[in-house]
User: Fold these one by one.
Assistant:
Number 1:
Amino acid sequence: MADSERPSAPGCWAACTNFSRTRKGILLFAEIILCLVILICFSASTPGYSSLSVVEMILAAIFFVVYMCDLHTKIPFINWPWSDFFRTLIAAVLYLITSIVVLVERGNHSKIVAGVLGLIATCLFGYDAYVTFPFRQPRHIAAPTDPADGPV
């Protein structure tokens, strides 16, 4: 039983490290880490704003696992590029609104740091939305199979 589990572990680790080196993997990993740091800052000052960081960190982790394990090709009934685009776009808008509200309130130092990091998260999520916009991605056009001058 233990022998059958060993070959899958290096494959899983290789998939994780290979995806982590791509641009999308780096963006998702940075989003997870930044949401965790913002969560810590909000929890130290005002726990009322921490739910945004928790939700976005969980969603980024889910998309990281989906893309890492290649589940986006195995689950075709979900449009993954559009889902990821709307996730990042909504996160950028919500982080912008939350950060402006937090910075206007003028709280303690951890609240100010969380607000500034929220503005950085706005830029990160906005860039991720720009990169994952589905119409920007190149489409594959199938080569014609019939001769161009008609049947022979």
Number 2:
Amino acid sequence: MKRDSRLSGVLHVLLHMAEIDGPATSESLADMMQTNPVVIRRILAGLRNQGLVRSEKGHGGGWRLAKDLESVTLYDIHIALGSPGVLALGHRTEAPGCLIEQAVNNAMGEAFNAAEALLLARFREITLASLSRDFHQRMQVCTGSDHTS
């Protein structure tokens, strides 16, 4: 089963945007992410609808963060992406007629729900600011400086 990497990708884009002084174009962000600018525009449009980013039109325009990094959590971004499922595991059959499979689904469903609730609670605690601080600490260790490459 293919993993959904949109949250990871969006976090990457947002942290790059935080490092840029001024608006970032879809083209420059797409280059950083090795994807098509249309993909970036589609993703950022969803984040704009949630008030996380804003776009500026015209020459010198592009995308900017609309909120302070400390006020945006992974949970906020997860919601802006449409609350995709966070687990790749699932039931073999959603509505089984077999009583054994019903028992299996019940036990697995309870475990899935508990795991998802725990993960989403953790997402509420992690801010973009904490990720940015981690990045800057890593940069200092690697290069002795505090700048992106």
Number 3:
Amino acid sequence: MSSGGDKAKLVTSGVLVIGAVVAFYLLNQQSMWLRVLAFLLVLGGAVALFFQTDTGRQLIAYGHESVREVKKVVWPTRKEAGQMTAYVFAFVFLMGLFLWLTDKTLEWVLYDLILGWKR
């Protein structure tokens, strides 16, 4: 549960994001680099303020845990990845061939044998 201070920080962060967009468009008479710089500075402030909240800290912790989990993954070797890719392509080809043959067989049975429609 967020405290009142965290809620205020989240609202302020949201207002800063909106302010960044508004500032970008209000500075339309200025050069583009100044508009982008103002946008990035205000947006950076909003992000910094967001990461000061419990929600921001939880997001950072989630990111750290995700990186830790990715490091535990045993990735396949290049040879294994190539073999699995070949298996997938072979399966897709065989399944496509099977579905095509099934379609043509049903077409022949329905149209030629049952209905008698000759093409």
Number 4:
Amino acid sequence: MLNKSDAQVVYDESGAAVGVSSGGETARCKFVVGDPSYFPGKTRVASRVVRAICILSHPVPNTNNAHSAQIILPQKQIGRHSDMYVFCCSYAHNVAANNKWIAFVSTTVETSNPEAELAPGLALLGHIDEKFVSVSDVHVPLEDGSKDKAFISSGYDPTTHFETTVEDVLDIYRRVTGEVPDLDTKNARLAEQQQE
């Protein structure tokens, strides 16, 4: 039922999430985990993100012709309140046509002209064949999900290195199970099981 336009969370008479309906079918469950788009009225806008997706015919200049690059422009160096993120990958990763690179530049919106805010990151890319810019809201849950069994992730922030996404997943795990995930212990147990 993922990525279906008609998917809707089903709630019981107490307001607890008990399933997901789509195409006339309902999958019943003890709780529902999902992104903010599945939970209208249960999130708020925390910030806005401006993103540019750029098609290049060359690697990012000054990266030793790398097929991938990750650059973080610290806020103080570019006169902003938020960092800016640049990520690039190429045809070598099977994500672009032969001899093409895809670059992403993103940051938190701070002004009434979001696209202009991307200038420091775009300047690093050299010639841009094609550019697509979007501005989106970043939604966060209003509650932790313990009452209504609707465990909602945060929306995607401007980061490109997945640190905040991993933190969000670990937070959802804690909210659902009531336990703080101990990945070191779990990894040690897996290693022991594999040796047996």
